[in-house]
Amino acid sequence: MGKWTRRAFLGAGGLVGGGLALGFAFAPNRMTILSGDSDASTAELNTWLTIRLDNTIKVIVPHSEMGQGTQTGLPMMLADELDADWSTVTMEQAPATETYANNDVARGFVLGDTTLPESVSRMLDFSLFKVAQIAGLQITGGSASIRFTGQLAMRRAGAAAKHMLLQAAATRWDVPVESLSANESIVTHATSGRSATYGELANEAALVAPPVEPTLKSPSDFTIIGQSQPRFDIPAKVDGSAAYGIDIQVPGMMYAAIKHAPVFGASFQAPNVEQVKASPGVIDVIEIDGAIAVVANNFWRAKTALENLELLCVNGDGESMTSAQIYERYAEAALSEDGSYDADEGDVANAMLGADKIVRASYQVPFLAHAAMEPLNCTAWVQNDKCDVWVGHQNPLGARKSAASAAELPEEQVTVHNFMLGGGFGRRSETDFVEQAVTLSRKVGAPVKLIWSREEDIRQDRYRPAVANHMAAALGADGMPTAWQNSYTNSGANEPGESPLTQYAIANQSIKGVDVSSAVPLGAWRSVGHTQHCFFNESFVDELAAEAGQDPYEYRRTLLADMPRHRKVLDTAAEKAGWGTPLPEGHARGIAIEQSFGSIVAQVAEVSVDEFGQVKVHKVTAAVDCGIAVNPNAVDAQIESGIIYGLTAALFGEIEIDEGCVVQSNFPDYPMVRLQDAPEIDVHLIDSGEAIGGIGEPGTPPIAPALTNAIFAATGKRIRSLPVSKHDLA
Amino acid sequence: MAVELHVNGVRHQLDVEAEMPLLWVLRDELGLTGTKFGCGVSSCGACTVHVDGTAERSCTLPVGDVDGAHITTIEGLGADEAHPVQIAWIEKQVPQCGYCQSGMIMAVAALLEENPSPSRAELDEAVTNICRCGSYQRIHEAVDGLTNV
Ligand code: FES
Ligand code: FES
């Protein structure tokens, strides 16, 4: 990533050395913008795009790269609207402070730091304000980057710049702008045969007023969107040069290892601190909220000294807690008549009375840890009046806020240097580890790199909630459901709100969550509520099909008769998987479908179960309708990734609690799918031309029910609680 | 203890505890951060390097045990020209977050050195590294491409 300097920009629209800069304006008081009373003198321009005289184009991306390809997909969207020559496009990650722009790094990010031309502030209509908000929050999660930043900001920026370039050419050649065309970074006047590159036009374009509402292309005119492009971030990831948070080296840096009281909410007493302080390389032993850290001149020395600390856990209220108790309490709670309704349609009670058959089933899913490949870490340096933080974070501005509070400094005095993330999956949107690093740096008065061991990473996570539920359905004489009832436990982390809903057309529905408390800390985990509810809903509908004596694919198909997008996705997955065609002896298929984050994904899993009960997943066929796939190869990769992530959870994933502590600690007891367990994955993208859906998460939910439905087809055993490894299938 | 290491062709003399794992010597003492910490218990393979040509997990390998050894890290693998595994990884767009890939590439490169055309089963047995992003399908494809040459 390049460096921003304050002198990178000369003035509004122009670059030092020539060229065009384009961006969106922010004012410190956003409400002023919203009310249309923009004070241009205090607004600042947030740059998204530069075009230099040598015809090179740089796109500035406000989202983190976790491997989902956002930092390539977003520039593609901009470049397409711009009709740019893709081979000349590069990207740069935005610093975490652009809207406040109060330090040297960030100052270069704003186009001038005094006044803004009226033409720029005119670009701020309401939807751009929303973009500013999203980009300002800089959260990478909720599969939102391409959907919102890309659609609302990147495409408009590209279209606006193209308009300005065309206008500049029209003025230069004194021809009507309608007589010009743009392609591959060249503007052409066909009648006279004249042409000029964007670079040649950039200086003049910088003087043109940006359009208030740039016209966007229709999808049929896309030339870059929809064509697979190699990701920008990959070359650095094969030669060791990609820099993750854990790789930062700051002169004079110390290293910290940390151990948290294993019982949630407890703290430590450490009788032999003085002795450990005298260990080689150890600088200090520091107690912080619920944890104890050793700071040393090398991480291994810190870690070794920490292992030599005698630690007594005290004040653990939850120390008698076990998983079994939690599950029991949840299953009981879900029986409650109370709850908050997600759907309450028709007359379920009446439909149940008139039913030909009533089917009931109860399900349960466990707590899960994220276990991103890069253990949590953060480097911080607090000096008198400033604090620097180096971290790979899904929410850099949130990290800055937490760092400021730990440093007791105004946010403007905190700079977050955001790095590549070695996986996030939701865990890197939390800020606990950031606050700890800042606190440690304050205490030792030096830069400190805090690294959590894998054991701490697994034992002190913010877990995917455990959920229990009870379902019931009424079937009519034709075997189709006339009523659907679901009462599930809600421990407060079941977002998004639509995740418990059934996607099927069933006249009478009662779907409700019963609030339960959790002493286990909870957080967002890839696909959040969809991972639990897709397992419940797609298992249960499979049970209904079995009760009705119907094929589970055909049964779903009938229920989706009025939902053409869903039906096409389901049909595609079934057809590509060869649904109904003969399989090798002992193999069977299962199917599931889920809409999440604006995308619809269906998966067919082909499995076999051997005489010892060992499950082998041979193949997963996925069909995906994410509207438009911006970078199809990267979309495929995300679906493959989501499937493996969900498969690991479905096969092996469970965080157990015993005596108030997490039992699992590292990969040997929290196992992962590896090469030998990895199924062949066949992804089919459906170009529906609908609104762009998210892609980082929607691949995950369907795999668990597709897998357990296939196990049912193979063995007749219905798995109603995860993980699969806990069930005896022999 | 005084230790001598030849890392990516450069000789280093260090005075460190013999028990310090090679991983932390590489990362914290020599500043070679391409080799990653993932588990610290020899389970994930993120820390894989070549010690005298053999793939080893450096997080549990005491530096005292490799005194005088020739070590290759990801930084040294393609230093002169990109290694075929690196080229295949770009071609198949294997990495996602990329954090596991240094170790993955080192493990695959060592296997291919020993067995230029491993079967799928041999590959799966030899390379037990974890990729939390699930890039396995592409690893399979990339290695297939290399062994078909
Ligand atoms: S860090 Fe060495 S095997 Fe995981
Ligand atoms: S690419 Fe992220 S862990 Fe392998």
Question: What does it look like?
Answer:
The complex is a heterodimer of chains A (730) and B (149). Chain A is α+β, with helices and mostly antiparallel strands. Chain A folds into two domains: 6-239, 2-Layer Sandwich (Aldehyde Oxidoreductase, domain 4); 334-368 and 463-726, Aldehyde Oxidoreductase, domain 4, CATH 3.30.365.10. Helices cover 29% and strands 24% of the residues of chain A. In chain A, strands 12-13-10-20-17-18-19 form a seven-stranded mixed sheet. A five-stranded mixed sheet of chain A has the order 15-23-22-21-16, sandwiched between helices. In chain A, strands 3-4-5-6 form a four-stranded mixed sheet. Chain B has 149 residues and is of the alpha+beta class. Chain B folds into two domains: 2-77, Ubiquitin-like (UB roll) (Roll); 84-147, [2Fe-2S]-binding domain (DNA polymerase, domain 1, Orthogonal Bundle), CATH 1.10.150. Chain B is 36% helix and 15% strand. Chain B has helices at residues 22-29, 74-77, 84-91, 101-114, 120-126, 136-147, and strands at residues 2-7, 10-15, 48-51, 54-57, 70-72. In chain B, strands 2-1-5-3-4 form a five-stranded mixed sheet. In chain B, a hairpin with a 2-residue loop joins β3 (48-51) and β4. The model of chain B has no long low-confidence stretch (mean pLDDT 96). Chains A and B meet through α9 and α18 of A and α1, α2, α3, α4 and α5 of B. Bound molecules: FE2/S2 (inorganic) cluster (FES) (2 copies). One FE2/S2 (inorganic) cluster sits between chains B (95-101, 131-133, 135) and A (67, 373, 423).
Summary of the model, kept short:
The complex is a heterodimer of chains A (730) and B (149). With 730 residues, chain A is of the alpha+beta class.
